[in-house]
Amino acid sequence: MSLLPVEEAQARLLARSAPLPIEHVPLSTARGRYLAEPLVALRDQPWADLSAMDGYAIHHADLPGPWRLVGESRAGGVPPGDSLEPGTAMRIFTGAPLPAEADAILVQEEASAEGDRITLTGEGPGGVGRNVRRRASDFASGAALLDAGVRIGATQIALAAMSGHVTLPVRRAPRVAILSTGDELVPLGAPLRPGQIPASNDIMLAAMLAEEGAEIIELGLIPDRLDAVIHAFHSAAGADIIVSTGGASVGDHDLVAPAIQAAGGTLDFWKIALRPGKPLMAGSLGDALFLGLPGNPVSAFVTATLFLLPLVRHLGGASAPLPPVATLSTDVALRPGGQRAEYLRALVREGRVTVVADRDSAALRPLAHSNAFIVRPIDAPAVEAGGSVKAILLENGCFA
Ligand code: AMP
Ligand code: MG
């Protein structure tokens, strides 16, 4: 069987699924989700011409003054009723509405007040509209503010709030069932007998998925017995995605493929042109998509980054579900690529990237010290130190 390029496997995987149904969530819980519809402004921002400084609202044509002081405008107050007469100035504070016909703000540092007489002490505002935030200069009611498919973070939440929204349309959070196969796996905190190891993949995947806002269904640690793996698949009802780790190559104890078929699912067995993480299974069981990742923790992380997270983002409504690829300068020379794309564990500092580990695909320590993958495409030419490389940047274990 020829090897499947990563990009083709990603395209095939995403083509199997569609974004989940739309629901409306409060802004306070929308973080990490994706807008399901374009965001449209429900109000003008600013709502009136506002002062950007503390000072005096004036007619620019009245410069260089002096002015007669006629009242005050504060943030939170209603706009002053009367228009500003020529030769007068109104005390005004940042965020307060301008009186009608005022067209500039004389900042308080450039003025002095004696009784109701204001005189210029500095240069004064350099033009009409200076130190004024015009009504609707940020956005006008009805304006398109964000496209559907955009990830919602702190700044998008602020924009939604200011534009008059209380909830946002998002896709239902994907429900992801996680199961780990392997007789050697022991739950966290349990005593280890010889031959046993603590299970780390399930909790790693759960941490990655939590960053994505996915709902997690823990199916637990499943021994390498066909009936046990079949039973685990049956208990994944209601999941949108079932992800397993381990048992993904064609060895004696590799039961995931026969189990999903026995449970009534379908399966493709893919050999990806990828290092680490060659074997990958993709299929379906009932309404759920199935993804079988390798057991090796680093391979599991790489394949979760390249396949599981994009699938979760796709179901969640992301318009760009695949990891973005940055171009960075490498601190170390890189040998030519081979028949499989390589994802080297790497560390990015100040725009330069260095390799943390490129060989041992099972080592968790360098993985935990990396914040990026250097991507070495199939047959990539050698790169000298200082040359450019492609990289996927990671934050909290997920791509940015
Ligand atoms: P497998 O794909 O089942 O052949 O597993 C490959 C390697 O990954 C073996 O050394 C396993 O012990 C290890 N491994 C499998 N599953 C896990 C897991 N859930 N957590 C940590 N290591 C695992
Ligand atoms: Mg195993």
Task: Give the CATH level 1 class of the largest domain.
Answer: Alpha Beta
- Estimate what percentage of residues fall within beta strands: 25-35%
Structural class per helix/strand content?
alpha/beta
**E-strand count:** 27
Count of DSSP-assigned helices: 7
* Span between termini: 34 Å
CATH topology (level 3) name of the largest domain = Molybdenum Cofactor Biosythetic Enzyme, Chain A
Structure description:
The chain is of the alpha/beta class. It folds into 4 domains: 6-21 and 172-315, Molybdenum Cofactor Biosythetic Enzyme, Chain A; 22-45 and 138-171, Molybdopterin biosynthesis moea protein, domain 2 (Alpha-Beta Complex); 50-133, Molybdopterin biosynthesis moeA protein, domain 3; 326-399, Beta Barrel (Beta-clip). The chain has 7 helices and 27 strands. It has helices spanning 6-15, 154-162, 201-211, 226-234, 256-262, 297-315, 364-368, and strands at residues 22-26, 39-40, 50-51, 55-58, 67-73, 88-92, 104-107, 111-114, 117-120, 132-133, 144-146, 167-171, 175-181, 185-186, 197-198, 215-222, 241-245, 266-271, 274-275, 279-285, 288-293, 326-330, 341-349, 352-357, 372-376, 388-395, 398-399. The strands form 7 sheets. A 6-stranded mixed beta sheet has the order 7-4-6-5-9-8, with no helix packed on it. The chain has a 6-stranded mixed beta sheet with strand order 16-13-17-21-20-18, with helices on both faces. A 5-stranded mixed beta barrel has the order 22-24-23-25-26. Helix 3 (201-211) runs parallel beside helix 6 and helix 4 (226-234) packs across helix 5. The protein is elongated, with a radius of gyration of 30 Å. The two termini are 34 Å apart. The mean pLDDT is 94.
